[in-house]
Design goal:
- This protein has about 375 residues and is of the alpha+beta class.
- About 70% of the residues lie in helices and about 5% in strands.
- It has 13 helices and 4 strands.
- The protein has a 4-stranded antiparallel sheet.
- Helix 1 packs antiparallel against helix 3.
Length: about 375
């Protein structure tokens, strides 16, 4: 083993005065471990590089959306972002385009992260919130608020609807301990029922409310406003920070509940905690842009293929979700259609192509 392949260790004292040790394998590409008082983090170079690359691509796609039609030149876009542009450029960039781009990146990241947690929790690649009914439940809660309450509480309605759906699905799949095909079947059944409930709510609503709600149910970023971005970003950041310590415990459950319990992991508590975080991420996405489909399903799988890693892959999935939704929205606003095209139409087409590709690849294998 060469010098560069030898494990290296760096020791010091953290901000709290406790010992901190950083271990790695130099330039050989092995995992880097950071350990300290109350901290245990294992970082693999390839997934980290994939996360950074996907984040840069998502940011670049968002920047392209700001200059999509040439109305505002790139130089004026930069000036508007840093407060040095004209008033017209600042209005177009900061008031009309930037909220949509920022909200799209945030919602995409939330969907990607939620999909990664659901798939790892269920140990099934189909375990995404839109497949197993959680998005439909969140949409039901949000619709009840939109049609019969104060729109300021849409996020609370989405979270309540998603959580209630999670409880119902878990009760139906209880014999399967929230894993496997039983969970997927229970989620599909509940999601189908809730889709009927959502359709019924639309038929009982006033015409103008029903039209706007129907557009929202498809999944749209067209009504994004500046005041929506900050709560969505804060919710996403808080939930990701809460999920990071739980991801390692969730990955250990792959060995089985008994083996993980021998390592000090409470299987039931971990699953409930991760479920609450995943429902919260779904609620952030649904309350901001509606139940956008297939991003949560595709993003974790694509990120895992690029990173060639195992486990949850939370951050790569979030970055891939942001890229997918930003690219889909760029396509939606660039197509020469008679009116604005909801981004949910594009993601639905993207999901269909992805599933067809998976079927074709499976047939060749």
């Amino acid at each position: 083993m060469s010098v560069l392949e030898k494990p290296e260790a760096v020791r010091g004292r953290g901000l709290s005065g406790g010992p901190v040790a950083v271990r790695g394998r130099g330039l050989s590409g092995g995992p880097l471990a950071v350990r300290g008082r109350g901290l245990s983090l294992r970082v693999r170079p390839r997934p980290l590089a994939v996360t950074l690359l996907l984040t840069l691509l998502a940011a670049g796609t968002g920047a392209l959306a700001l200059t999509r039609d040439g109305l505002v030149p790139p130089a004026e876009v930069l000036g508007a972002l840093f407060g040095a542009g004209s008033e017209q450029a600042a209005f177009v960039v900061l008031e009309l385009r930037l909220p949509r781009v920022a909200l799209g990146l945030t919602v995409g990241a939330a969907l990607g992260a939620a999909g990664a947690l659901f798939q790892q929790l269920s140990r099934n690649p189909l375990g995404s919130p839109d497949i197993v009914g959680f998005n439909s439940g969140a949409a039901t809660g949000a619709l009840l608020v939109l049609l019969h309450g104060d729109p300021a509480y849409v996020a609370a309605g989405a979270a309540g609807g998603g959580l209630a759906t999670a409880v119902i699905v878990q009760l139906l799949a209880r014999r399967g301990s929230f894993r496997g095909n039983r969970l997927i079947l229970a989620g599909i059944a509940v999601g189908s029922l809730l889709a009927s409930v959502n359709a019924y709510l639309l038929t009982r609503a006033a015409l103008d409310h029903a039209q706007s709600a129907q557009l929202w149910l498809i999944g749209s970023l067209g009504s994004a406003e500046r005041h929506q971005v900050t709560p969505a970003l804060l919710g996403l950041g808080a939930l990701l920070l809460a999920a990071l310590p739980a991801v390692r415990r969730l990955d250990l459950l792959e060995m089985g509940d008994e083996a993980a319990g021998g390592l000090g992991v409470d299987a039931a508590r971990t699953r409930v905690f991760v479920l609450l975080i995943a429902v919260g991420l779904s609620a952030v996405a649904v309350s901001a842009a509606g139940p956008i489909v297939f991003v949560a399903l595709c993003a974790p799988q694509l990120a895992r293929r690029l990173g060639r890693g195992t486990g949850t892959g939370l951050l790569p999935a979030a970055a891939m979700g942001a890229l997918l939704l930003a690219a889909s929205d760029l396509v939606a606003i660039s197509l020469p259609t008679a009116g604005p095209l909801p981004v949910g139409v594009v993601t639905g087409a993207l999901g269909g192509v992805y599933l067809a590709w998976l079927l074709g690849r499976g047939r060749r294998c």
